[in-house]
Amino acid sequence: MAGTKERAAAELARRYFDWAAPASLQHFRWFSGFTAAAAKAAVADLDLVRVADGSELLLPAALRAEFEAYEPPKKPQYALLAGIDGMHLLHRDLPRVLDAADGERVFLKKALSAQPDLPAHMIVDRGRIAGLWEYDVERAEIVWQAFGEPDAALRAEVDRVTAFVRDELGDARGFSLDSPKAGPRGSPNSAPDRDG
């Protein structure tokens, strides 16, 4: 019988793939901090299947039918999320949630897809990052940049979140070391360009 440590690792793996699938073993290793051998041992008794032949992405077999039946909405479904949201943080693999062209966009002198983390909070649409945003405390407004042509639905969501941050939170920093004057990651002028 496996020891307590092994049982805990297996339970973490089970919860991770319930939360974050589809995900690769490498994603799980990053999240858990496990070695390759420990990660393989942790998932050994889980009923994980590949999303497609040749893919490294795994998901619990019980979720496969639901995953395969899913059809993304035809209309945009925008959400302004924190840069530390689980959509990115559980995998820390930006190319998986970026369109290829958007991954080539340069922020802070580096292509977005080459960065381990986002330079700002994210605007998402149907599972893809569709832009970036930060909150300007002095102006009490969101400064944002869409990766495509912004439509009325996106502008309405920006307005809704602006009102929430202004009226309920007062600020929306990405990191506790950020300050309203310094901007994200403590570097001036690193917020996305104003749009709209």
Outline of the structure:
The protein has 196 residues and is α+β, with helices and mostly antiparallel strands. Helices cover 35% and strands 17% of the residues. Helix 1 crosses helix 3 (36-43).
Q: What is the average of the pLDDT values?
A: 88
The portion of residues forming beta strands comes to 15-25%
Rg calc: 19 Å
Q: Give the helix tally.
A: 7
List SSEs in N-to-C order. HHHEEHEHHEEEEEH
Determine the structural class based on helices, strands and strand pairing. alpha+beta
Please tell me what the overall shape is: elongated
Helix fraction by DSSP (H/I, runs of at least 4) = 25-40%
Task: Point out poorly predicted stretches.
Answer: 184-196
Largest sheet: 4 strands, antiparallel
Instruction: Tell me the strand order in the biggest sheet.
Output: 3-6-7-8
Polypeptide structure, described:
With 196 residues, the chain is an alpha+beta fold. It has helices spanning 4-20, 25-32, 36-43, 61-69, 86-89, 100-103, 152-169, and strands spanning 48-50, 58-60, 78-81, 106-107, 110-111, 121-125, 128-136, 141-146. It has a 4-stranded antiparallel sheet with strand order 3-6-7-8, with helices on one face. Strands 1-2 form a two-stranded antiparallel ribbon. Helix 1 crosses helix 3. The longest helix is centred in the last third of the chain and has 18 residues, at 152-169. It is elongated and about 55 Å long.
